[in-house]
Design a protein that fits this description.
single chain, 470 residues, alpha/beta, Rossmann fold, 3 domains, 7-stranded mixed β-sheet, 17 helices, 19 strands, globular
Length: 470
């Protein structure tokens, strides 16, 4: 068993500069950094060059488990996440994180003996597992939390969109910007006090409307206060091989989707699906047109959270580092990183996430590598080749005739396996990433890339037509 002076468990809210200060302050011979994210090679080089006389080991959580383990973390948490037949998603996430932390701790303590353990608190970390601290909530704190929660409800505002279409009335809670409407649609937007809205729902004030919300506007309170059916219009990508755990949120709504693949996950767990509303645009993928030249390559980043153990905060980091490595090799091509708009949320990738990525790109100092400052449509328009692990925006790129590559650099299942099976391009290693990039910039081999994607596009479009009985 190897002796290590300090084990330090951190997430992405701890910067490299803070790690340097931590080492300077503690001044021990050996350090083990366990991270919920992945520390980039260039960042580790900075640490090791500054402290060349010290032993520094770094591992991310996913180093110690695989797809089966992650699934088990969720399944075990799911068993204890029901209260009177109600699925408590907050409790589930907490238990899943706890299971993950306990598993990694058991693995580590079989290999290393740590003299001291330091642990940050926050996303992806259960501090009690590591330092045996009790963080019990006393009665006064409990009352304060309840009062604070009530204040948020009283002062909160909620945007509501109203739509009249073909003799039917629809009400949407929150934004509808990700829903694809037919061209002639006009929505009337109003702003409601949140508490008033809950009261109006309770007394069936909107009885003449079909109540709807987009997936990304999911709000359990609104569902609980309704007096009639409520429709969830899927406005993102729902993988058919998502775990069961996420599905529990959607058992009290009527699911509506305009994409055949989004229906499969729900069918797998006996949740019925409604075909799209008349106001939704039915879309198909466009074939890639020849000739096609690669000048700009775009990485479409995802975001993460604790909604399932199968998603980890290191997932995107692996792909980002590999993507940036491509920029070093192909310096006559422009490489663009598009950050996910909600990654910076404190419960997703963390409040320091974007800063960390900006600093990493700055460290690399490559003239042909940048972070996008454009909107999504502009990036889709200017990009020629798109990489992403699993993303609705990757499908958006393919839908307008751009080349897309499903890129899973993780140790778990591919959440776009449905599209891999149809024949769309995919990679799961650095070598495969390099090879497809090399082939894409060759006037000879790009023809094969285009042909392969176009065959997959035809298969997809046929399945879409079958779904709509066209």
């Amino acid at each position: 068993m190897q002796n290590i002076d300090i084990l330090y468990i951190i997430n992405s809210d701890v910067t490299i500069n803070e790690l340097i200060l931590f080492i300077e302050k503690t001044n021990k011979k050996s350090y083990f950094f366990l991270t919920t994210h992945y520390i980039f090679e260039e960042e580790i080089k900075i640490l090791k060059s500054k402290f060349s006389n010290k032993t520094i080991i770094n591992r991310d959580f996913t180093y110690y488990f695989d797809d089966k383990d992650m699934n088990n973390f969720d399944d075990e948490a799911l068993q204890y996440s029901y209260k009177k037949n109600y699925f408590d998603n907050t409790l589930f996430m907490s238990l899943s994180v706890k299971n993950k932390n306990q598993y990694v701790k058991n693995k580590l303590l079989n290999i290393y003996k740590f003299i001291d353990i330091y642990c940050e608190d926050g996303i992806g970390i259960n501090k009690d597992i590591w330092v045996n601290s009790k963080n019990e909530l006393n009665e006064n704190n409990f009352i304060k939390n309840k009062i604070s929660k009530f204040k948020r409800i009283v002062t909160k505002r909620k945007k509501i969109s109203f739509l009249n279409y073909k003799n039917d009335k629809y009400l949407f809670f929150g934004t509808t910007k990700r829903i694809k409407f037919v061209n002639e649609i006009t929505l009337e937007m109003k702003d409601y006090n949140y508490l008033l809205l809950l009261i109006l729902l309770k007394f069936n004030y909107f009885k003449n409307f079909k109540l709807c919300f987009a997936t990304h506007e999911y709000d359990k309170r609104l569902i609980d206060f309704k007096n009639k059916d409520i429709f969830m219009v899927i406005d993102g990508y729902m993988s058919p091989n998502y775990p069961k755990t996420n599905i529990e949120l959607f058992r009290n709504v009527i699911v509506v989707t305009d994409k055949y693949y989004n229906s499969k996950w729900f069918y797998n767990y006996n949740i019925s699906i409604n075909k799209p509303f008349p106001f939704q645009e039915v879309s198909y993928f466009k074939e890639v047109e020849k000739p096609y030249i690669i000048n700009k390559v775009v990485l479409l980043m995802n975001h993460t959270g604790d909604w399932t153990s199968l998603i980890n905060r290191s997932d995107d980091d692996f792909l980002l580092e590999a993507f940036c490595r491509l920029a070093k090799f192909f310096q006559n091509i422009e490489f663009i990183v598009r950050l996910h708009p909600t990654a910076i949320h404190e419960l997703h990738n963390g409040k320091e996430y974007n800063n960390r990525i900006y600093n990493y790109i700055k460290i690399l100092n490559l003239d042909n590598l940048s972070i996008s400052d454009k909107n999504l449509n502009e990036d889709l328009e200017r990009g020629d080749l798109f990489f992403s692990e699993y993303s609705n925006t990757l499908l958006d790129a393919i839908s307008i005739g751009k080349i897309g590559v499903i890129s899973n650099m993780t140790k778990r299942r591919n959440f776009m396996q449905e599209f891999v099976d149809l024949g769309f391009h995919h990679i799961d290693s650095n070598d495969e990433l390099y090879n497809i990039m090399s082939n894409a910039i060759s006037s000879d081999t790009i023809k094969n890339i285009i042909t392969k994607q176009n065959i997959a596009v035809k298969k997809y479009n046929n399945l879409q037509k079958e779904y709509f009985n066209v």
